[in-house]
Amino acid sequence: MSDGKIVAGFVAPHPPHLVYAENAPQNEPRSQGGWEPLRWAYEKARKSVEELKPDVLLVHSPHWMTLVGHHFLGVPHLRGKSVDPIFPNLFRYRFDMNVDVELAEECCAEARQAGLTAKMMRNPNFRVDYGTITTLHMIRPQWDIPVVGISANSSPYYLSTEAGVDQMERLGTATRRAIEKSGKRAVLLCSNTFSHYHFHEEPEIPEDMSCEHPQSYKGYKWDMRMIELMRRGEIREVMRLFPEWVEEAFAEVKSGAFPWMISAMQYPSIPAELHGYGTVIGTGNAVMEWRP
Ligand SMILES: [Fe+2]
User: What is the pLDDT along the chain (292 residues), one digit of tens a residue?
Assistant: First the structure.
């Protein structure tokens, strides 16, 4: 089979607060709501996914950290409980997901072909990280589309941002090749927050929105500058500024999901659609969509 394609790519951040706020049945803690504008942004993204009818969702998550190489979920069915180590009070989620192992293996093979260290994750009891789960839940709460989960190799932290970005871009190209060969319609999910300056104390009621605003004005300004460039389709300029953005806004995009996705979509010059922006404990989160 061939002529598979990437039908869309989303920036789809993973604050567990969003799952908590919507009182997802799989999550134990209960809330009184909160972070509505961001959750409404995800509602728009959910509609897009519904319309696009993809065969598979691929997600690159900063919270599945691997030191040696890029890893891919390689077990057909994964279930268990995932707990956010920072916010166990908000996120204790029973996950149950089907993995597209065939496509994951193809991505892994293409990554090796591209000279990267890559490996399949075959532990049947693997506890999937909260980043992967939150992004997938927020984009498709029905869990009825198979997924490919990709780890965040720590190269941007252990080597340098530039060396890390180079690896993620190669991983993106490899991912695109694998999708094309598969004949499948794929959606890419870049699971990360933009500015990552955050408050160090939680309000007594976590969802008390009177306490929610950008933690850093500098971080906020960077986010707006980058979102505006994305909305204008100036992705090359975004990538040129990428190391500076990462440095000055302490942006979580450093972990690689963003360059992975943008490279897989061949640096789309089409304008991105901003579904919404909001802060979570002061960090900047945008839900955005590209339809190549
Ligand atoms: Fe995160």
Answer: 579 999 999 999 999 999 999 999 999 999 999 999 999 999 999 999 999 999 999 999 999 999 999 999 999 999 999 999 999 999 999 999 999 999 999 999 999 999 999 999 999 999 999 999 999 999 999 999 999 999 999 999 999 999 999 999 999 999 999 999 999 999 999 999 999 999 999 999 999 999 999 999 999 999 999 999 999 999 999 999 999 999 999 999 999 999 999 999 999 999 999 999 999 999 999 999 999 9
Kindly list the structural domains of the chain, giving each domain's residue range(s) and its CATH number in brackets, ordered by start: 5-290 (3.40.830.10)
How far does residue 131's CA lie from ligand 1's centre (Å)?
6
- Contacts with 212 (C-beta within 8 Å, 6 or more apart), sequence order: 34, 35, 278, 279, 280, 281, 282
| 249 Cα to the center of ligand 1, angstroms | 14
Distance 173 CA to ligand 1 centre (A): 24
Is residue 114 within 8 Å of 173, Cβ to Cβ?
Answer: yes
> What's the gap in Å between 14 CA and the centre of ligand 1?
6
Three-state DSSP at 154 gives coil
| Distance (Å) from CA 4 to ligand 1 centroid | 30
In this prediction the pTM is 0.97
CA of 269 to the centre of ligand 1 (A): 27
Cα 228 to ligand 1 centre (Å): 22
Residue 55, C-beta contacts closer than 8 angstroms, at least 6 positions apart: 100, 145, 146, 184, 185, 186
